[in-house]
Amino acid sequence: MNPHDQPLDELRTLILKSQSEELSEAETVELNRLIHLPGGAEEAARLLDQLCAFTDVGSSNLLPLEEGQPETRQDSHHTAPSAFNTATFPEPPAERSRPVVASHSNRDRSRAESRSVGWTRAYWLVGLAASHLVIGSFAWSLARPAREVAPVATLAEKVKPPQIVSMTACVWGQGGNSVPTLGKPIHHGEVLNLVEGVAELKTGDGTPNEALVRIEGPASIFIREDGQLGLNHGTLTAKSLGFGSEQVSIITPIGLVSIDGQSSVGLVSLGDSHEVHLFSGRAFVRTLSTFGSSEVRLEEGDAVRLSTGTEMDSGVVLFEASMASFASARSNAFDPLSLDEKYVNAVLESSPDIYWRFEGLEGSYPQHVKNEGKLPDSHARVVGNPGWRQYRGNRVAELGLTDAASAFTADTLWPSEPLDNYTIEAWAKPQLYHHGEMICLVDPAERREGRHDQALLLETFAREWFYALKVLGPNRIRFNHRTPPSGVVLDGKNLVSEEQYQVRVWQHVVARKSGNELSLWIDGNLAAQQEDEAPLPANMQILIGQLYPTKNYRPYVGQIDEVAFYDRALSKQEIRRHIRASGRLVDFD
């Protein structure tokens, strides 16, 4: 016998022995040593490949690697794990441990499963050998000579690539390979950087791995060789449309997340904090070795949080899953706004100049929403093609859901004279975190190329923005008062809510000036205030849903209702009285 072959013969002997009896501690250590010798991994793969040929592979799950085994990536655009293999994972729970290959009979299979806990050391060590190979189904062919393998298509050529099926207010950033378009395939290795909006992808179309994935900007993903996704950072939700165990997998900065068919999950990876929320079905989180945790099994309603930072709890924290962290997990019909005459009467008692309820359209093209306030003819003219949603007896406007303009403006200017006291009131339901204009007062004089100066802005912010607005805080509501009107981003007084606004949830928003005091109110609570002696300029054009009257720029994406303008400052008591008239809870005066 060639002395160089002796270690490989010993390796084969130990692998075969593990199929019929439990290995001792010393044998397990020796198996580990032999696998790491030159040629050891290839020899183990060759033997396992031969054993698999005699195995009922339809009833076995040889290694937890088949679902989207990730490859080492050198792409500078993302930070996918570079050494993602079984060696980085701790021992799995006993109830999911299995021998490396299935036994040749039910009797052998039962006997092998009965000792699966003791086998797990060798199970993972042999899995280490497999991690050096490219695994497709159950054939590990790296160790085979090229002459024995007929030319076959690569995995990337066989898998149908994912594609974008819908986009809502998407802003794509630089650093990705391309700017995606609807229906265009996104191929292996491509990186998508979404700054704002929600993009929906379909992956694995027509296969057991089929899924709908919604990415919420800002987020960055990459496409794996098997057509499934990797998350660099950001937020996404995924719904598996297939059937079976662990049909959909996503690589994340903490490890591999796999979900069963017909399950839905939400992933958050922001900074050093990483979360997995299971909304329905079952999921598994196989963490990287740096977390020192075994596989985490999640049942419906469970969530897990892990940290990659040094100043945070680096352990595994289990808690209750919540859809509140995911805009795309809720439908547009979530949190209905059902207002009746009680609310309308409460607003009318406060004597608004302009009150737009959006209950219906009147007149010929372009149609308008009737003003129910005290000023005649101050109707809301339709711009573009807004949508509508009915909540029982109350109808609301839906804006920004398409690339076309969807807004409202008034042909009558307001106010007729400068105001030291005023109030603007509305119900708003942002569909996602984004930078959008709910209500603007703009100078009707066009400066250039359809641009106008603004005297007042009531807007939503995004998590991130390109310019100086980042200093104002992410995901907030901003009230900006400018005298004189200006188109400079940070001119005037900026009031930014202390708390983030909620997505797909109705919020009562009030911008108010009372003498020298500016204040922003959210759901009847003071959110921000500043002092400013300058009055609101006269003869401004009211605009709802976008920044400029004739340009679909910085659209507000979401629903809006019950917009009212007052030439006086409502008291705190009046603001809360209106909210209580809607049937919503609010603090007493």
Q: Report the major sheet.
A: 12 strands, mixed
Principal-axis shape equals elongated
Judged by helices, strands and strand pairing, the structural class is: alpha+beta
Report the end-to-end length measured between terminal Cα atoms.
94 Å
- Approximately what portion of the residues adopt beta-strand conformation? 25-35%
**Average pLDDT number:** 79
The rounded Rg comes to: 30 Å
Number of strands: 30
Could you walk me through the main structural features you see in this protein, from its secondary elements to its overall organization?
- With 589 residues, this protein is α+β, with helices and mostly antiparallel strands.
- The protein has eight helices and 30 strands.
- The protein has helices at 6-18, 25-35, 40-52, 106-114, 116-130, 155-158, 341-349, 572-581, and strands at 135-136, 139-140, 163-172, 191-203, 211-223, 229-240, 248-252, 255-259, 264-270, 273-280, 282-287, 296-299, 302-307, 317-320, 354-356, 368-369, 380-384, 387-391, 394-399, 406-409, 421-430, 436-442, 454-460, 477-486, 493-496, 507-514, 517-522, 525-531, 541-544, 558-566.
- Strands 3, 4, 5, 6, 7, 8, 9, 10, 11, 12, 13 and 14 form a twelve-stranded mixed β-sheet that branches.
- A hairpin with a 6-residue loop joins β24 (477-486) and β25 (493-496).
- α1 crosses α2 (25-35), α1 packs parallel to α3 and α2 packs parallel to α5.
- The longest helix is centred in the N-terminal third of the chain and has 15 residues, at 116-130.
- The chain is elongated, with a radius of gyration of 30 Å.
